[in-house]
């Protein structure tokens, strides 16, 4: 009997099984050798921006600057990024008026306590901070039309800034290919009409809307254009390890710096099972990424990619914050079957896209082919069952149940952190 710790909330959860008969797929980000402290990595990247002047140069002659920052659902180590961005902006222009704009996308508003945890008390007390609201049309303004035909409507705080910059982190993303870069604008600070248009059923169904895929990805192409229309001039993006520590940093042009980060990350996160799993275990990387079921669909797609036909997928995610979206939850709860819901989604035109549709479209895709067992906070059992899935209190119990379904000799694949890998 062996043990392996799977991320779950802040504490983790232990799996007990014979790992000699299983495949364990992990990213190799831990092998990325950092050349200095987290602060030094960010400062070095900012001192040598890719495809762009330094931030202090960009600040000259500008009256206002908006820095798009991540919200509470992203483990971006802002304490190691924002102070240096603020410092360099003011070195270039001491009088520049700076606003931090929280990129909530379609998420709930970030609380003050969450802001303090992310930025530190000093920045929260002394900087101007605005939380984006995608559902408030008065706060947003149209700046163009996207390749998809959707209107590009973004937060006025971003659109009206003389200089728009952003922070972020780069990880694999289950339908945008990679996070970071252009995603700060779309969906980060975009109006719901733009997010809904971009996340339409046709785009989500594209075979190119997958983890690690940028070329040919229709969502990515829309996002690039949104960032161009918003005039996102400069980014600081980082790659983090499993301990959420910065191991690489990229600064400069929003396209070139982001691409450089994606290219490096790809080398470390590609994994491939020798044999597809009859049972596949995955997680969403623990806190803060596994706070709800909605976000945890990401890690589940890694299990999907590693699974044999009719496999049982085990998803380990605390989900202490519940389902993460009323529309997401009710769609699964109220449908007659995942197959019927999938058919309904695919018949939905772009301009009728519903909030959270993309998330339940992907979950439906998985449920149509696999039996899913969710390991969550016990308070979420009814929610899991309402959403046409099975609940278990811990991984060992779930694995025993999966073996009842697939047999004791079923091939087991374990992906400790489903959002850190690109399964080929």
UniProtKB/TrEMBL annotation:
InterPro entries: LarA-like, LarA-like_C, LarA-like_N, LarA_C, Ni_dep_LarA. Residues 22-212 form the LarA-like N-terminal domain. Residues 274-423 form the Lactate racemase C-terminal domain. One of its GO terms (molecular function) is lactate racemase activity. NCBIfam families: Ni_dep_LarA. This is Nickel-dependent lactate racemase. It comes from Caproicibacterium lactatifermentans.
């Amino acid at each position: 009997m062996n043990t392996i710790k799977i991320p779950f909330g802040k504490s983790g959860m232990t799996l007990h099984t014979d790992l000699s008969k299983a495949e364990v797929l992990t990213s190799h980000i831990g092998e990325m050798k950092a050349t200095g402290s987290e602060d030094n990595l960010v400062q070095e990247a900012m001192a040598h921006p890719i495809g762009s002047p330094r931030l202090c140069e960009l600040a000259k002659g500008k009256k206002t600057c908006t820095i798009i920052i991540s919200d509470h659902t992203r483990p971006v180590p802002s304490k190691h990024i924002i102070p240096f961005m603020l410092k360099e902006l003011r070195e270039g222009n001491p009088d520049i008026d700076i606003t931090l704009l929280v990129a909530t996308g379609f998420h709930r508003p970030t609380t003050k306590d969450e802001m303090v945890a992310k930025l530190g008390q000093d920045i929260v007390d002394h900087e101007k901070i605005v939380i984006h609201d995608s559902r408030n049309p008065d706060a947003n303004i149209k700046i163009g039309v996207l390749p998809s035909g959707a209107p590009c409507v973004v937060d006025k705080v971003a659109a009206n800034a003389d200089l728009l910059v952003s922070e972020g982190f780069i990880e694999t993303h289950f339908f945008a290919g990679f996070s970071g870069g252009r995603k700060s604008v779309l969906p980060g600070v975009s109006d719901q009409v733009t997010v809904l248009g971009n996340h339409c059923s046709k785009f989500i169904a594209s075979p190119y809307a997958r983890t690690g895929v940028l070329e040919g990805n229709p969502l990515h192409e829309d996002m690039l254009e949104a960032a161009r229309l918003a005039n996102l001039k400069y980014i600081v993006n980082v790659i983090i390890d499993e301990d959420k520590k910065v191991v690489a940093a990229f600064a400069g042009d929003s396209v070139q710096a982001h691409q450089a980060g994606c290219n490096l990350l790809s080398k470390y996160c590609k994994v491939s099972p020798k044999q597809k799993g009859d049972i596949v275990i995955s997680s969403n990387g623990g806190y803060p990424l596994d706070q709800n079921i909605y976000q945890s669909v990401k890690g589940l797609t890694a299990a999907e990619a590693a699974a044999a036909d009719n496999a049982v997928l085990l998803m380990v995610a605390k989900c202490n914050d519940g389902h993460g979206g009323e529309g997401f939850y009710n769609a699964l709860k109220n449908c007659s079957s995942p197959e019927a819901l999938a058919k309904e989604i695919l018949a939905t035109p772009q301009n009728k896209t519903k909030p959270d549709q993309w998330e339940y479209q992907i979950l439906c895709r998985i449920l149509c082919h696999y039996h899913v067992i969710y390991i969550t906070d016990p308070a979420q059992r009814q929610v899991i069952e309402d959403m046409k899935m099975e609940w278990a209190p811990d991984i060992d119990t779930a694995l025993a149940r999966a073996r009842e379904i697939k047999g004791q000799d079923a091939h087991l694949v374990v992906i400790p952190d489903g959002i850190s890998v690109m399964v080929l």
